[in-house]
Specification:
mainly beta, elongated, 11 strands, 120 residues, four-stranded antiparallel beta sheet, seven-stranded mixed beta sheet
Length: 120
């Protein structure tokens, strides 16, 4: 069993910052890419950022220059530092990871989400 558990969400004023964390645990031998997605009310889930196992990063245009993704491979943890947040960043943020175990092969995993609300 593999679990991704997000934390760090909450209520923040526009212009403020939050640091989201996501820990992967369970039957994991290797993790490839890890990332963050978000889903605002009434909208489809959208990609936010990705980081490879080697540390290469990519960002959606809407967050580039404001958000920063990082990871600690020793802790199977990925972070999302959100700076200068805007009301349109309000969403449930989901962690995503490609995990490998000999019993399952490669599988895409999702967390349950953490709510981020930005007040204007």
């Amino acid at each position: 069993q593999v679990q991704l558990v997000e934390s760090g969400g909450g209520l923040v004023q526009a212009g403020g910052s939050l640091r989201l964390s996501c820990v992967a645990s369970g039957s994991i031998f290797k993790i490839n890419a890890m990332g963050w997605y978000r889903q605002a009310p009434g909208k489809q889930r959208e990609w936010v950022a990705t980081i490879t196992s080697g540390g290469s990063t990519n960002y959606a245009d809407s967050v580039k220059g404001r958000f920063s993704i990082s990871r600690d491979n020793t802790k199977n943890t990925v972070y999302l530092q959100t700076n200068n947040v805007k009301p349109e960043d309000t969403a449930v943020y989901y962690c995503n990871a490609d995990t490998y175990h000999i019993s399952t092969g490669w599988r895409e995993r999702w967390g349950q989400g953490t709510q981020v609300t930005v007040s204007s």
